[in-house]
């Protein structure tokens, strides 16, 4: 039950990132790159504060290979995520992102010869079918190609970041290192494009996304990951678009429909099938 609750809390944080990012780059008056920059800086500061409060000495301060890969994948995810939402609708972006995340993690499980029970395949298929039914814009034009490529890259980045996190001996320290190096990289970028600007509410969304739903959420995710199978972690993340759409309806005035309710049952039911088999 404890792992379930922690995983659910992490999924809520991930969904909140989508709502905050979408609001920040639309109503918040921020450029996508500015939002990503401030998100990484505030996340890095929050994690540095947590490390300082713990005051636990570490045996090594040199970056591990896993940490370098984690930093690179974090940058790919955050930048692709923010830039893609400049042209994509929220639902289409979420479908591309978590579809690619799922594909990346299941491919990794297959390559490492992890045993995948048949019911997990069925559960994942049902959940993904629910996402397609919920998010695919029937009768609308195809999504922007460049935005779709950026969001697909973000999905690969998040999938790799998740996989790397499974081997973290110290989840909080590894997350802090990833954010620290990513924030330093964005500091170099800021020299060329200037500091982030936007409406006060947009700036607040970026800070909240970085310090709370990213820094704390990712640290918790790294802590939970070693106790989850790769396929379970991939399937659980399919709930995030459903939660994000619920948050959009609650905080952004987006419409809740019967299609949303039925598709949510498919997604959550599929996740339940996969988790039930794992137990």
Automatic annotation (TrEMBL):
Keywords: Membrane, Transmembrane, Transmembrane helix. One of its GO terms (cellular component) is membrane. Residues 4-135, 145-274 form the EamA domain. The keyword Transcription does not apply. It is a multi-pass membrane protein. It is found in: Membrane. The keyword Transmembrane helix applies. InterPro entries: AA-Vitamin_Transporters (IPR050638), EamA_dom (IPR000620), EmrE-like (IPR037185). The chain crosses the membrane at residues 34-53, 65-86, 92-111, 118-139, 145-166, 178-195, 201-221, 233-252, 258-275. This is Threonine/homoserine efflux transporter RhtA. It comes from Litoreibacter albidus. The lineage of its organism: Bacteria, Pseudomonadati, Pseudomonadota, Alphaproteobacteria, Rhodobacterales.
